[in-house]
Amino acid sequence: MINILIFVVLVVVIIVAEKFRRSFTSLLFKSSSFSSTKRAEKSISKVVSSDAKFLLEDKLPAGLSRETIPKHVAVIMDGNRRWAKKKGLEPMLGHESGARSLVKLLPLCCNWGIKVLTVYAFSTENWIRPRVEVDFLMKLFENILKEELEFFMRQEVRVSVIGDSSKLPRSLQKIIATVTETTKRNSSCHLIMAVNYSGRADIVQACQSISNKVKDGLIKSEDIDEGLINHELETKCTEFPYPDLLIRTSGELRLSNFLMWQLAYTELYFDESFWPDFGEKQFVQALHSFQRRQRRFGGQDGDKLVCES
């Protein structure tokens, strides 16, 4: 009888001891887990703070001011063929290298706060070039849009194409429609590619559209003003239709029928580099030149300036 009693007591002691062990282990685990969570939260906080600090850091190259960064930069990408000829290469390789220069420029615009980059890719006059070169350029535009779509999405780049697209190859028209639709909600930078574009033709089509509205009684002739014309131009696709800065490469000093209305008060910068050689260094120099200028828009020194953009 005594042996049975002792056996029962031992069983009870073992059960109680096991429950105590489990409770104690659970308490230790919770304490450890709580400490780990706190350490993790502190670690995450440090990372977030570090990222926030990084985001707040001025990403601009030395000497540039964020307050006077142009909102809209337009570029006449000139000199691809001459670059290739100078190196003893086929003209097509010059165009390919020029395309790479454009892709390299986009992240800089995104990082530095330039909201719109408009590039003169193909003018209405360029159709007179050799057929083999024109066909190559059309295919190059198509490949750029296809191959860089993931890059556009990753960099939050919106893409628009201005010009008479009806004369472009059907395959190029389709990829233009796809890319513009896919990227339309991106907001970091707006890339506008002028393909089969003419500044004069842009003004003509705007006048035709306005005259049709007058004829249809939608507006009166006295309603026509600069704002209405601007709304009919192809650059109506962007919030900032007037370029602050125009860059032309290869040393040429002319506008070549590019954005004839929109460039009225744009600062002009001409660079000797051929377009394939135009990189970050040359871009920074152009922006330095822009920021050293005083934009008066027809006023005088000391007047309050109103930026057209």
TrEMBL record:
One of its GO terms (cellular component) is chloroplast stroma. InterPro entries: UPP_synth-like, UPP_synth-like_CS, UPP_synth-like_sf. One of its GO terms (biological process) is polyprenol biosynthetic process. One of its GO terms (molecular function) is ditrans,polycis-polyprenyl diphosphate synthase [(2E,6E)-farnesyl diphosphate specific] activity. Keywords: Transferase. Signal peptide: none annotated. It holds the Pfam family Prenyltransf. Its EC number is 2.5.1.-. CDD domains: Cis_IPPS. Its cofactor is Mg(2+). It is an enzyme of class 2 (transferase). Coiled coil: none annotated. Belongs to the UPP synthase family. This is Alkyl transferase.
